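Morning - NAP inputs below, output right after.
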Amino acid sequence: MEQRKLGATLTVSAIGLGCMGLSQAYGHQDESASVATLERAVELGVTFFDTAEVYGVHHNETLLGRALKPFRDRLVIATKFGFTYSRDANGFGEITGTDGTPKNARAVAEASLKRLQTDVIDLYYLHRADPAVPIEDTVGAMAALVAEGKVRALGLSEVSAETLRRAHATHPITALQSEYSLWTRDVETNGVLAACRELGVGFVPFSPLGRGFLTGQVQTETLGQDDFRRRLPRFQPEHAETNRKLVAVVEGVAQAKGVSAAQVALAWVLAQGQDIVPIPGAKRIPNLEQNVAATGITLTAAERETLERAFAPENVSGGRYPASFSAMSER
Ligand SMILES: NC(=O)c1ccc[n+]([C@@H]2O[C@H](COP(=O)([O-])OP(=O)(O)OC[C@H]3O[C@@H](n4cnc5c(N)ncnc54)[C@H](OP(=O)(O)O)[C@@H]3O)[C@@H](O)[C@H]2O)c1
C-alpha cells in the first residue's frame, strides 16, 4: 500500500484502521471477529492502528495488545489519554470531562503500555485539551515520556490552531487528529489544517466516513438503543433526511465510477494532501477491504467539484456533536 509521512517521525500506510468501533459506539461487538479484522488489516498492509484509553474503557487497548502482538515491530500504534470517565458494571464508560495534568499523562501512558503489551507507544495523543492545565504543562509531561523512551512521537486531537502552535513550541507535534470528511470541513476554515501545514504536523482525519453515514448504509431509524450516533444531531430524523440527499450525490459519483460510496468518501479525504492519513473504522472485513482499496481510487477534478458543491457547509444539516462534546473541541 501507498505510504505517507506524519510529521518528521512516522511513516505509515496511507489509510489506517480506527479501532474504536471494535469496542464501543456503533452497535454489537464480537471479540473473535475483531481479532480477525485486525489480522486481516495487517495482511492488507495497514500499519497504522488507532486506539485510546477510553475506548470500551481499556478494552480496545487490551484487544489490540493481544491481537497485534505477533506483528508489533512493523506497526505504528497510536493511543490517547486525557478524558475523565465513569465506568458501569460492564466496564463501559461515559466521558465526564478532561484531565491533562502531567500526573495523568504519565499514569495513563504507563497503564497503556501494559495493556498494549509493548514497551513503547508510537504516537501518544492528548485526546482533548484540558482548560484547567496550560498546554505547555501537558505537552511538557508528554515530552518527558519521549525522553524516557516510553513514547516515540506526540499528537493532539481536536485542538485549535493556537493551541497547536503553543504545543509545537514546547515539543514537536507529529500529528493532529480531528474530525474531517465531506460533511465536516471545519479544519479547512478554522486555521487548523493551515497551521499543521505551516508547522509540518501530519493530519489524521477521524470519522472520515461520517460515522458510517456517508457510505449510504446507515439507517438512522434502526440504530440500536445504545448506539452513540443516536446522540448526535446529524443523525436525528429532522437532519438525517436532508443529509441523506447529500449522500445520494456520493452514491451517484460512486455508481458512475463502479466503486462504493464509502470508497468515494475516502478517496476525497485522501486527495486533500499527502500529509493526510485517514483512519476509517471497520469491524467487518468486507468494509475494511473496501476501505483499503480506496487508496487506489483517484477522483477527477469534476468529481471532486460535484462532491464539494453538494457538501458546501451550509448544505449540511445539524451539528456534528451535542453541546457537551462540542464544548471540549477547538480549545
Ligand atoms: N479523536 C477523537 O476524538 C475521535 C473521535 C471519533 C473517532 N476517532 C477515531 O477515528 C476512527 C474512525 O472514526 P469512526 O469509527 O468514528 O467513523 P467512520 O470511520 O467515519 O465510520 C465507521 C463506520 O462506518 C462503517 N463502515 C466502514 N467502512 C465501511 C464501508 N466500506 N461500507 C459501509 N460501511 C462502512 C463501519 O461499520 P463496521 O464497523 O460495521 O464495519 C462503522 O460503523 C475511530 O475508530 C477512532 O479510532 C477519534
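Note: The chain has a mean pLDDT of 96.

O.
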